[in-house]
Structure formats: C-alpha cells, structure tokens
Amino acid sequence: MYNVCLRVTNNEMEAEDVLQESFVSAFNHIHSYKGTAAFGSWLKRITLNNAINVVKKRRIEFQQVDDYADFDNRYEEDEEQDFDYDVRQVKSAIELLPEGYRLVLTLYLIEGYDHKEIAEILEITESTSKSQFNRSKKKLKEILKQQFQNAG
Hints:
Helix 1 packs across helix 2 (12-28) and helix 6 packs across helix 7. Helix content is 65%, strand content 0%. It has two domains: 1-59, RNA polymerase sigma factor, region 2, helix turn helix motif (Rna Polymerase Sigma Factor, Chain: A); 68-152, Arc Repressor Mutant, subunit A, CATH 1.10.10. With 152 residues, the protein is an all-alpha fold.
C-alpha cells in the first residue's frame, strides 16, 4: 500500500501520511466492507483514492484534448533504438515526469486501470487520459535517452 501511495504522490512524507489516513479510514469504515471483493482490493482502492485526492489538491493541470482524434503510437525510425535500462533507472525517470503525465502513466501501467476508469478517477475526459499517457511515454523515452547519453 505504501508503494501505491508513493507512486501516486511521488513524495515519501505524503505517501506515509496517505497510508496512515487510509488505514484509519478503512478501520472507521470497516462496516461498509461487504466482502464482495478481496479485503486487500478494498483497502487498495481506499488508499489509491486518498493518494489521488492529495495529488488533486495540488491542482494538476491536464491538457484537455477532447477533439484529439488520433493517438499516434508509432515511433520514428531513428527513435527505435534498443537501450538497456534497469528498474531503478525507469523508476527514477518516471519520478521526473510532470505530475499529470506521471499520474496517468502510473494508473494505467502500474495500477492497471483503463482510460475510462482513469478519466472517472481524475475527473478528466477519456481522450485526455489517452493523450496524457501517450505524451508521458514520449517524455519518459526522452528522459531515459538523455540519462543513457549522459551515462555513456
């Protein structure tokens, strides 16, 4: 649960606070747990919602792209280079993403939400979620490429 908080907030102290608040909230609302899902899933949802609320308070600005029709996932030929990255490098690069990009990328790739769910959670359009995700991938590649070049 701490890792969920940390991935979403990108701040250790906030993650610790969110985690504590989530356990207190779960304890105070244990009567609402119906047992239809695993307890861990129920607790994770509370934790994730609390972490997202903390991030929302920072007033993340998502670029609205309601009319954005084509989400281009193709890559330029010269960008298709193979780089070997370890988990620490990728995690470090994700932490450097702008907050909106990082949050959508985390919810989609790591937490497993689809764009419709992300749109509902973050109160944005599904198109915005998709474009933020695509932009986050591009930015992540740029950061990793720059780190690779700086290291070599």
